[in-house]
Structure to design on (121 residues):
């Protein structure tokens, strides 16, 4: 029953994200609203981490499975994609490397700041 409750909390936050997506005139996906709301709720201690930890860990573990429908959609759209598959491939590779580089730099920066704070305290 614990997992149902945790999953329900995550779904409720996701549903609120869907509502915000419909109400606010911003070009932000509902999933981003939901994840930001969940982050804010966790950060402000409205929701305790322990209240969603097990279910969120499970969802992260099965996340690769969630990409299967998108891959099938690409295969289904092959007739449209086949004329421009090289640019798609290049854009995907470049953006992946760029995101990894930026994420790595951000993590390094955060770690340096954290080490400096620990050194001062």
């Amino acid at each position: 029953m614990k997992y149902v409750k945790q999953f329900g909390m995550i779904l409720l936050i996701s549903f609120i994200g869907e509502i915000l997506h419909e109400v606010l005139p911003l070009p932000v996906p509902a999933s981003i609203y939901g994840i930001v709301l969940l982050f804010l709720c966790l950060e402000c201690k409205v929701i305790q981490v322990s209240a969603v930890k097990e279910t969120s860990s499970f969802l992260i573990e099965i996340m690769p499975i969630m990409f299967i429908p998108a891959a099938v959609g690409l295969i289904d759209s092959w007739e449209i994609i086949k004329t421009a598959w090289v640019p798609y491939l290049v854009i995907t590779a470049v953006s992946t490397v760029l995101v990894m580089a930026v994420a790595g730099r951000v993590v390094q920066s955060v770690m340096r700041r954290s080490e400096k704070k620990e050194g001062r305290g």
Notes: The longest helix spans residues 85-120. Residues 94 and 100 are 10 Å apart (CA to CA). The chain has a mean pLDDT of 93.
